[in-house]
Amino acid sequence: MKNLIIKLFISTLILTGAFSCGRSDTQDELIVFDYRKSYPEIDLKLSDVADVRIIKMGGVNQGYFVDVRDVTTSDFYVNEKTERIYTKQEKDIYVYDFNGNSVRKMNREGRGPQEYLMLLEFMVDEESNTITVDDAMGKKFVEYDTLFNFKRNIPYKIPTQKNLFRINGDTLLVYSSFKPHHWTEDMPHYFFLISQSTSKLIKQINIAFERPINDDPYYFADLFYPSLIRGKDGVFLTNKCCDTVFFVNNKTLEVAPRFVDATNYNTTECMTIPALETDRYLFLQTHYDLKLSFNVEGSFYVYDKKKRQIFRLKVDNSNPPNHSLSLLNNQCALSAKYQTLSEGFMAVFFRATFLIDNIDKLPPETQKIVKTLKEDDNPLLLLIKIK
Q1: Contact 202, 193 (CB under 8 A)
Q2: How much is the average pLDDT of 48-71?
Q3: Where exactly are the structural domains of the chain?
Q4: What would the DSSP string read from start to end of 163-195?
Q5: Pfam families given for it (predicted)?
Q6: How far apart are the first and last CA of the chain?
Q7: Positive or negative, the Cα torsion across 167, 347, 227, 195?
Q8: Are 221 and 236 in contact (CB under 8 A)?
Q9: Cα–Cα separations (whole angstroms), residue 152 to 108, 144, 166, 169, 330
Q10: Torsions phi, psi of 24, nearest 5?
Q11: What does the pLDDT look like over 173-197, one tens digit per residue?
Q12: Which of 224, 226, 246, 339 suits 75 as a labelling partner, its CA being 20 to 30 A distant?
């Protein structure tokens, strides 16, 4: 049934002119993937597509970092020009230099008019000297300068967000994962665009989901992958109830289908989605749940835009489930969850105890660094700059 739907979908696109095999613009091609197919293998190295550096967070004084489990790369901003790294832990924002030394710790938690109740997400614009905090409980954006001096509040009346991206000047692309108790029919839902400066709705992005939507917050609150994934000149839109991944163009704000996973996994917790897009490649990752899909493993693929072909990436599956050690071994085990708030950068944190326990699986140069670590040391950061 799923294959029939895919064929009808592609036929409709061809008839309407939205998709053509003869187009030279590979940016608009609809890519159809099937996990059951045997794709040719390619040994593409991480160093072929990115420059990497390993940074010991906290530097000499071990400042600020508490626990790597509290840090995700969706809460991570890097500016190569100023050599500054911003990252969030709970209600604090920490700033480091490129040597891992702590620069400052910032916190404005509280109930005052210049404070936030809950630091859900943040955005940094060093050119305009602005850090914007998404205060989900206070239902407002709070703007500070980069030293965390207060600028202004921007109240909003939009549902709780899971992801948000600035995609076009003042425009924010938002994913709201469920209808909160105060939701009303005039509120946007799932994917939509708002103005950051006014928090007003620009437009709702209407996507037809292929499976019924469950608005239970516990069902949607913790997906295994991001719902907004940065691509080349735009953002991919993913949802566990939709096998089609759509793409929003940064400049035109137009929405079009870009990728379809035609696989029947027998569970909504498994899906192959984009992980990273470069000029030449679209990297893909199969997300899975060990309890729900015994015959599916976390695999990595790449679509070569020049050859117009999907390849299976050579990645060592004997590494721990998250495959992060494969990155340290120069393999392209790229995941959307490693994307940062800064375009062109991915990042992975490694707990000291994890690296010490797996030192025999690391390359010689990394082993030298790990041998200097103690179990209670701050994590190492693998900073990946896409070429």
Answers
A1: yes
A2: 75
A3: 2-386
A4: EEEEEETTEEEEEE-S--TT--TTS--EEEEEE
A5: DUF5128
A6: 41
A7: negative
A8: no
A9: 13, 7, 18, 18, 44
A10: -85, -15
A11: 988 766 655 556 666 678 999 898 8
A12: 246
CA-nearest of 269, 211, 209 to 245 is 209
Regarding pTM above 0.85, the answer is yes
**DSSP calls for 68-79:** GGG--GGGEEEE
Return phi, psi of residue 118, to 5°.
-145, 120
Q: Tell me the pairing of strands 309-313 and 41-42.
A: parallel
pLDDT value of position 310: 98
pLDDT 10s digits, 194-211: 898 888 888 889 887 777
The residue with greater pLDDT, 194 or 145, is 145
Q: Residue 199: what pLDDT? A: 82
Closest CA to 134 of 110, 112, 154: 154
Q: Which two tokens stand for residue 177?
A: 């994962």
Mean pLDDT for 227-249 is 92
Contact between 42 and 312 (Cβ < 8 Å): yes
